[in-house]
Design brief:
Blueprint (H helix, E strand, L loop, with lengths): L4 E7 L7 H16 L4 E8 L5 E7 L2 H13 L1 H9 L6 E6 L13
Length: 108
């Protein structure tokens, strides 16, 4: 049985890097992820201190780790990492203990 995995990467941008520069990486990063086996979902958020949280759901740990290795070799990954304060980066992979998928429906 495979277990859904959450990949959580937190980081800050390098001094002088703008949010516009970060935004410019989204399309290629998302396209890369969508091509990876086991990719389910990605979101990016930011707290009040400017710490960014990139959260990706994977079908299993093998998919998460394989994509992570490929990401660092891909131009999309290199472009994103070039904007980050590398000392601020933390990455975690966590198996999901429980989940409740919700079917989206249009409002009446």
């Amino acid at each position: 049985m495979s277990t859904t995995v959450i990949e959580m990467v937190s980081y800050k941008l390098k001094a002088g890097v703008s949010k516009e520069q970060l935004t410019a990486t989204h399309e290629k990063v998302n396209a890369f992820l969508q091509q990876q086996a086991g990719f389910m979902y990605r979101s990016l958020s930011e707290d009040n201190d400017g710490l960014l949280f990139d959260v990706v759901y994977w079908q299993d740990m093998d998919a998460a780790k394989a994509a992570g290795e490929q990401f660092m070799a891909d131009a999309a990954g290199q472009a994103l990492v070039a904007l980050t304060d590398e000392e601020s980066i933390t990455m975690r992979h966590m198996p999901v203990l429980t989940e409740t998928p919700v079917a989206c429906s249009s409002a009446a």
